[in-house]
Amino acid sequence: xxxxVRVEPDVGGVRVIVCAGEFDQDTLEPFRAVGAAAAADxxxxxxxxxxxxVSFADSxxxxxxxxxxxxxxxxxxxxxxxxxDRLLLLTQARDLFAIADGVEAARTx
Length: 109
Fold this sequence. Notes:
This protein is of the alpha/beta class.
């Protein structure tokens, strides 16, 4: 499955980035680009990363997620898919992220 990255229109300073498919160092650029744009936009007070459709992610995706986390504005919209959740657990990074049950809950965290 090819990766897909979609940015929903900002509402109330919240930018939702929807990711689906497989993400590794060769397919990460669309996610990296929209993430960097969100992090650089002073009008974005929260970045919601909807990961429900991610079927595979490697350490390069995790690295980009950590870079967004450093903005202090990132919330993950779950449920986090099993493979990605396992990556977060194995790297001991899961507890670093705020994870909400769905996009609407993530908007309000």
